[in-house]
Amino acid sequence: MVQINDNYLKLQAGYLFPEISRRVREFQKENPQADIIKMGIGDVTLPLTPTVIRAFHEGVVEMSKAETFKGYGPEQGYGFLREAIAKSEYQSRGADIHADEIFISDGSKCDTGNILEIFGPDNIIAVQDPVYPVYVDTIVMAGRTGGYQPNGHFEGLIYMPCTAENDFIPEIPKTAVDIVFLCYPNNPTGTTASKQELKKWVDYARRNNTIILFDAAYEAYIADSDIPHTIYEIDGAKEVAIEFRSLSKTAGFTGTRCAYTIIPKDLVASASDGNKKSLHSLWFRRHTTKFNGVSYPVQKAAAAIFTPEGKEEVKTSIGYYMNNAKTLRENLTELGFQVFGGKNAPYVWVNSGRGIKSWDLFDKLLNEAHVVGTPGSGFGPSGEGYFRFSSFATHENVLKSIERMKSLKW
Ligand SMILES: *Cc1c(COP(=O)(O)O)cnc(C)c1O
To answer: Which terminus of the chain has a lower count of CB atoms within 10 Å, N or C?
Structure first.
């Protein structure tokens, strides 16, 4: 009999978003008139901007003519896009990253999961708790953990609690960890790490030969000038960090698909014989073997984001979401919630301040206000008691949801 990958059986049945959908569906069935406002899943709502659409069209037209038609492109992405990213996102911030250290892909979700392939199976891995569920699930699928334990942890994986008590920045591990996933601005908490905080992590990684997998999917939402936009703004990070960026939340590419991963050429790790090997070379081999590139029109569209007009348009879209976040922050605070995040990230992370558990708050808001958010406990045990609101909604709906929440008995 063919054997399956038993590691998949350890997964907690993808319980978070399917469970939210199930409860919403059930409620809708019993209350067909209810106008449900969804602020749960992290998906953008504004369309692609005019400059991006224009470039996208041009790319499509080029594909229609023999003289400009493109077949397979370079697996790691077209030079024009990688050059634009290196200049606009890194060199302009004093980070010494070059086009040949950038890999274009169809998403950071895939990249943050796939990257584990280039690392040995016995590495000790640490994740933030609460955390973007993709990291944990892909670690489990790859057989790098034991089973799920009653405390909500997978055996063998290190969980670093991020709560109000530590400003949502995990404590530096007391022991040596090989691989650390860090996400800033953070999903789900919407909080950020300052330069000093990130420097502590880079220094730790340098002392312990740790690799930091830095997910900066929400970099474009940073408004405060003292928050680093890339980990490579920190001295020495090029020797210890891989950075993931995505155009999904930056420019509304969730349905268009384009992201990029930076693997500096200085980055090395040990082979089993003790020899140091370049992680860039390994990922290059992996990427060119298992991936055949992002479509040409999409890369054309992506490059338009880094033009002056493109940047202005992206800023406007992000401004719209961040105005929602501000409205949520102010009003939820008025309602007596403890409110975090939402200043440099599209997520507002709240604690009811009344000792209500995450799923109980979910049910209360769904049943009484017809508002859907995400229970914090779904992102990890340290998320219990918290709740995530996404600001990717229309402003009208944000206002409506607040009005409804204010009319509830708390
Ligand atoms: C949305 C998101 C991504 C982006 O995923 P894509 O596959 O590029 O759409 C990556 N990391 C985090 C934490 C996210 O929330």
So the answer is: N
